[in-house]
Task: inverse folding
């Protein structure tokens, strides 16, 4: 499975003409963990969602190539997209409270995902559900399966989301700020869990986050976006040798426990970053 | 504590929501001009303490003092002149149909202070916002600008104490740095007293020399930022939070 994006642009109409939210992004994802990092409005989520054709209807998408495992997403029909979405590429969002159906139990939702993509009996789906919940390290799968989303903590809800996304055994997982709403202790557990599942199943992962240190710890490769463009792409291990002033600025402005600073570094945004030159 | 006068004292504060004991006997004292941090995970009771201190919840037991005076359950106008609060989400705390001018004028009107025409431009200046922002609506501002407006509004009546509830958690990291620098400058210039609640240890340690760590409604450890940085923690929960925070700091 390979994801190819070449010269992707996404524009939104405004009264003053189209506004470009993503401007000429190119990247490929193979069997690896890729992080896309950027601040709000950098276009990181739009870029990942364009792969699943999950953009607002008014978005205008152009690209030289936008392909999922050789399937041209730009020209794909809704029917073709349904065979990718959920089934071959799963999506995990920030807050399970808004992604889970509030009037279905966790178990029913996971079983639904299982049956939809695997066409098995209810009974088989129910058994698979308990197995999936156990795989996301829930100690009492039967209890959680019978619980409604509001009865679950944030971390538990996110485990349920992950279990549901794993049901069809997808090749790609897109996780958009999957742990931003969670406590630090829970965040670490969820990331370890995702890492484990992804490497055991040989899946590809696109992790979208505003948190550069977190992403570089967790991914193999990191793409840094600014104002709709990729400004830097690097191996996660060589983050300390980042060259672009924006990437370096992102790292420098973080307060840390290990290196106390009198005053935090702030960024002077160079207009040249907007054009991708620097 | 360090011999300086304690401006804020909280004694044995307990708060319940139905059967849930959200805060179970919390005590601390903050000297004038100091910055006191409270860290903890969600549900630890940190924001509940701050909200009770701000007078947003009148159902508590224990004692709270400001400047040696026991605070009444229902806070009076004089209290809000001296103590103001800044919330996490500036979008939620600014009225969407009111201009910045109106948002900044409101505390002056509530306190019966005149001179809005000079106070508002000065307040914008102090938080480094351009004057052009004055007649804009919250949705026309960036997240960082909105939080600056919320800080300007809290400071416009010249309070002595700012209660800060996750003031930078909703902001991008580059904007967070600017707002934290601004808070540091304002504290020095005006001799403000801060109580800051956050889940982010590094942010709290940057602003506050003394930090209370909360878990399950209790303060499990009070530690100086210096001791926290050096790893001289005494409670396992503090050690765990510290490890999770420093783990990501080394690339």
Result:
């Amino acid at each position: 499975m390979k994801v190819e994006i070449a010269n992707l642009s996404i524009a939104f109409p405004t009264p003053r003409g189209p506004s470009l939210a993503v401007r000429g992004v190119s990247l490929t994802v193979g069997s690896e963990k890729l992080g896309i990092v950027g601040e709000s409005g950098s276009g990181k989520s739009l870029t990942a969602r364009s792969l699943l054709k999950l953009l607002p209807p008014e978005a205008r998408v152009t690209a030289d190539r936008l392909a999922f495992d050789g399937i041209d997403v730009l020209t794909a029909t809704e029917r073709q997209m349904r065979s990718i979405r959920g089934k071959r590429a799963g999506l995990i969002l920030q807050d399970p409270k808004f992604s889970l159906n509030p009037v279905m139990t966790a178990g029913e939702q996971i079983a639904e995902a299982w049956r939809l993509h695997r066409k098995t009996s209810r009974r088989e789906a129910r058994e698979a559900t308990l197995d999936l919940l156990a795989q996301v390290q829930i100690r009492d799968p039967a209890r959680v399966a019978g619980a409604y989303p509001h009865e679950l903590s944030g971390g538990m809800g996110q485990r349920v989301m992950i279990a549901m996304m794993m049901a069809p055994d997808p090749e790609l997982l897109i996780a958009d700020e999957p742990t931003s709403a969670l406590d630090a202790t829970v965040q670490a557990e969820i990331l370890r869990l995702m890492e484990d599942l992804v490497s055991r199943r040989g899946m590809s992962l696109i992790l979208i986050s505003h948190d550069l240190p977190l992403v570089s710890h967790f991914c193999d490769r990191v793409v840094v976006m600014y104002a709709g463009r990729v400004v830097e792409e690097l191996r996660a291990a060589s983050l300390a040798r980042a060259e672009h002033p924006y990437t370096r600025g992102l790292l420098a402005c973080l307060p840390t426990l290990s290196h106390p600073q009198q005053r935090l570094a702030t960024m002077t945004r160079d207009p040249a970053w907007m054009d991708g030159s620097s | 504590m360090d011999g300086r006068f304690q401006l804020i004292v909280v004694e044995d504060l307990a708060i319940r929501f139905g059967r849930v004991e959200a805060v179970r006997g919390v005590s601390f004292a903050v000297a004038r001009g100091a910055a006191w941090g409270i860290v903890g995970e969600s549900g630890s009771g940190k924001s509940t303490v701050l909200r009770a201190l701000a007078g947003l919840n009148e159902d508590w037991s224990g004692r709270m003092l400001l400047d040696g005076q026991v605070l009444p359950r229902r806070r009076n106008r004089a209290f809000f002149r001296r103590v103001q609060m800044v919330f996490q989400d500036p979008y939620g705390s600014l009225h969407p149909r009111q201009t910045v001018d109106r948002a900044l004028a409101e505390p002056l009107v509530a306190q019966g202070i005149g001179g809005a025409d000079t106070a508002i431009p000065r307040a914008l200046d102090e938080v480094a916002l351009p004057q052009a922002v004055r007649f804009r609506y919250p949705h026309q501002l960036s997240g960082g600008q909105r939080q600056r407006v919320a800080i300007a509004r809290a400071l416009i009546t010249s309070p002595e104490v700012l209660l800060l509830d996750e003031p930078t958690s909703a902001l991008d990291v580059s904007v967070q740095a600017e707002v934290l620098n601004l808070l540091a400058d304002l504290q020095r210039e005006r001799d403000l007293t801060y109580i800051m609640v956050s889940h982010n240890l590094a942010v709290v340690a940057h602003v506050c020399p003394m930090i209370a760590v909360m878990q399950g409604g209790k303060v499990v450890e009070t530690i100086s930022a210096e001791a926290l940085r050096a790893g001289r923690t005494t409670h396992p929960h503090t050690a765990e939070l510290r490890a999770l925070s420093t783990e990501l700091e080394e690339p």
Chain B touches chain A at residues 41-42, 143, 172-174, 176-178, 180-181, 184, 199, 201-203, 205-206, 225, 228-229, 240-242, 244-251 (CB under 8 Å). DSSP finds ten helices and ten strands in chain B. The longest strand of chain B covers residues 6-17.
